[in-house]
Amino acid sequence: MRLPPLNAIRAFEAVCRHGSILKAAEELGVVRGAVRQQVSTLEDHLGSKLFVRDGRSLVPTEKARAFAEAAGVALAMLRRAAEEFEEADKRRIRIGVPSAFAIWWLMPRVADMQASLGDIEIDIVPMTVVEPLSQHPDFDAVIMGGEIRSSAGIAETRFMEDEFGPVATPPMAARLAVDVAALAASNILVSRSAPKLWTEWFAESGTPPVAFSRRREFEDIVLAVGAARAGLGVAMAPKASIGDDLARGILVAPYGFIRRPAGYSLCCRISDAKRPAIAALRSWLLRSGGAS
């Protein structure tokens, strides 16, 4: 079978990824009509409709969704191969990291990381909302915690355990330690970037759920934990991200932490897994994560 036109595949994959012809056109630097034409060309080539209309939205068919995922992997491989061809001597990694993990775990260790990696340049991009690597073609790798979901073409290396639990200042924690039911009268701090953490903690810890009478939402975990540190309430936090606060007694975990099987993982494209720079980063994370 003849391969579909590359531009048609690029346009189709961008529409599926963004869920919008307009956003796909903006990414590709063309007008919307050009994107529609490329999608139509691909449909003619494949002999099948790729989208169905749901109101004003275009929804990919099940077969089209699978094709888009494969196309995304293939395009990323081509992009990476081209970059390596053009910049064979450049040793640089662009990595997406959950913002709390980046600030409280990775950055205090960045000097050791750089010393270990030598002349490899690391570009750390904090992510308020953690998304899989397939949604970030400009990243070489991402670090993911309990939210990790396996996907085609991605290699995952678990380098550290993941634990989480409620945290508060010592005076507030002392009031909570009597009984979990005391959470009902507390000011609960919730992160919009990880809104299910409290529900997951109740389920995974075997603790009977508590109906919160007061809750306050923040954009991400960094802000929620900052509010807990200021004594504004109780936040749900990953242990790895607040180790220093726990050691200094700024925050206390009145009910301890529970372990999550997924842990923290470095995710990269299978085609990149053997790159010297990625391999060096993986080795450093395994060494540093295992020691934490």
Total number of helical segments? 11
Detail the poorly predicted runs: none
CATH topology of the largest domain: D-Maltodextrin-Binding Protein, domain 2
CATH architecture of the largest domain: 3-Layer(aba) Sandwich
Could you tell me the strand content as a percent range? 15-25%
User: Radius of gyration from the CA trace?
Assistant: 22 Å
Number of domains: 2
Encode the helix/strand succession as letters. HHHEEHEHHEEEHEHEHEHEH
Question: How is the largest sheet built, in terms of strand order?
Answer: 4-3-5-10-6-9-7-8
3D structure, described in words:
The chain is of the alpha/beta class and 292 residues long. The chain folds into 2 domains: 6-86, Orthogonal Bundle (Arc Repressor Mutant, subunit A); 91-292, D-Maltodextrin-Binding Protein, domain 2 (3-Layer(aba) Sandwich), CATH 3.40.190. 42% of the residues lie in helices and 23% in strands. The protein is built from 11 helices and 10 strands. The protein has an 8-stranded mixed β-sheet, sandwiched between helices. Strands 1-2 form a two-stranded antiparallel ribbon. Helix 1 (6-18) packs across helix 2, helix 1 (6-18) crosses helix 4 and helix 2 crosses helix 3 (32-46). The termini are far apart.
